[in-house]
Every structure is written in structure tokens, then in C-alpha cells.
Write a structure and sequence with these properties.
Largest sheet: 8 strands, antiparallel, barrel
Number of domains: 1
Number of helices: 0
Order of helices and strands: EEEEEEEEEEEE
Radius of gyration: 18 Å
Number of strands: 12
Distance between the termini: 14 Å
Shape: elongated
């Protein structure tokens, strides 16, 4: 089931006004990036050596981005089950920290992401998931998917 995505203004420019007559180094000035919100992410399989899907298969799931306007860090909550820590640049490019998890209740997995980019209409990032073994037994395998806001 998908949720309707909140309109995405991923690189919303927020103008801040300085209070009082002077400025201080801690007072933000000028445009600030803001990427927080609730979104639907379409994940499309690029390759799969695990036998779970085929290239081109896709599914959509909800996600939340927690971000304070102007901050260089954010957290992407991927379908309510895990928090992915990210670092955001002023130009909208970002990185996500590698994440270890257990999938299908027993298989160790490591997710890594290529650098991504927030835009005025969403974001794009590529996820590589390395499983320690194939589901049902067998050697390690890999699934690569693109993630896009829809």
C-alpha cells in the first residue's frame, strides 16, 4: 500500500531574516536547503544475483526524511523499519552511511549507496545490497536498485 506523497520541494529555498541590528556567525543568512517530508519511494531493480527479482521490477514504499532547514545532516526512515543517516551538501547532493541489517529473519545484509541528489521534484540514489547468502541457501549475492521519489 502506498501513501500519497506530500508535494516535494526538495530544494526549497528558505530566506531567513537576521533579527536585530547585527549579525552573528551562528545566525544563518541567505538561502538554505530544506529536504524534510513524507514521500513515496519507487525502488527499481537494476540487477539481482539472489534470484528474488528481475531487472525492471519495481515497488513503492513510504519514507520520511527528517531534516532541519540548512542542516548538513538528515535521517531517511525507509518504510518505517530503519533510519538511514545522511549528509547533505548545499547543492542537493548527499551520501547515506552504509547500513547492516538482517533480511528474511536470518540473512546478514549490507546496504551501500552511491552518492545521491535531491532535486526540486525528488531524489535519486542507487542502493547496492550485499547478502551473506542466497535466500534458501547458497553463496553470497547482490541486488542493485535505483530509488526515486514518485
Amino acid at each position: 500500500m502506498t501513501r500519497t506523497a506530500r508535494p516535494l520541494y526538495a530544494i526549497a529555498i528558505l530566506w531567513t531574516a537576521a533579527c536585530g541590528g547585527g549579525s552573528s556567525p551562528s545566525t544563518p543568512s541567505g538561502p538554505q536547503i530544506s529536504v524534510g517530508g513524507t514521500y513515496d519511494i519507487r525502488k527499481t531493480v537494476v540487477s539481482d544475483t539472489c534470484g528474488l527479482s528481475s531487472p525492471g521490477d519495481s515497488f513503492t514504499n513510504p519514507a520520511d526524511v527528517r531534516h532541519t532547514a540548512g542542516a548538513t545532516t538528515f535521517v531517511l526512515n525507509d518504510h518505517g523499519t530503519r533510519d538511514l543517516s545522511g549528509t547533505l551538501n548545499r547543492d542537493g547532493t548527499f551520501t547515506l552511511a552504509p547500513q547492516r541489517s538482517i533480511v528474511m529473519g536470518t540473512i546478514g545484509a549490507l546496504d551501500t549507496w552511491d552518492p545521491g541528489r535531491f532535486t526540486a521534484t525528488g531524489f535519486d540514489v542507487r542502493d547496492t545490497t550485499d547478502l551473506e547468502s542466497r535466500p534458501g541457501g547458497g553463496p553470497a549475492c547482490r541486488i542493485v536498485a535505483t530509488w526515486r521519489i514518485v
